[in-house]
Design a protein that fits this description.
The chain has about 140 residues and is an all-alpha fold. It is built from 5 helices and no strands.
Length: about 140
């Protein structure tokens, strides 16, 4: 299921991809911030929620459970492509085809990373960082 740390330096490097992904997705969607001002008092709880609910829960479901099963059924690449397409389609609510394509690319990357490393740790952090930057940090700077 990928509930291992893997090689920590590699996992932390993967997590840093969330910085670029968060800025890129902000440039696509330009959402309003979910907090009133950028302070530690306002950011810590929503950031923790993003880390746990979108980072861990979504990655566990999509890369841990669905991808593992899809790879067994469809094979290595087709399983990753199938789950990545499913993940991307669920982002259609933003009404942006550019975002769906962007999310598909990120999902393919996450799927490949989990398959190669056997760990969800890096992509969990990257996903949580992406959404924290997208909705909590970057709106105050761009």
């Amino acid at each position: 299921m990928g509930l291992t740390l893997g090689w920590l330096p590699v996992q932390l490097a993967i997590a840093l991809a969330g910085l670029a992904f968060g800025v890129a997705e902000y440039l696509i969607l330009t959402p309003q911030p979910l907090i009133a001002e950028l302070t530690w008092q306002q950011i810590w709880l929503p950031a923790l929620i993003f880390l746990v609910c979108t980072g861990f829960v979504e990655e566990f479901i999509f890369r841990g459970v669905l991808q593992r099963t899809a790879v067994e059924v469809f094979g290595w690449w087709w399983g990753i492509i199938y789950v990545s397409l499913l993940f991307a389609v669920l982002h259609m609510g933003f009404l942006s085809w550019i975002d769906v394509i962007f999310v598909l690319a990120v999902a393919l990357f996450f799927g490949w990373v989990v398959k190669k490393t056997g760990s969800l740790f890096g992509v969990t952090l990257a996903h949580g960082i992406t959404n924290s930057l997208l909705y909590l940090v970057v709106p105050f700077f761009l």
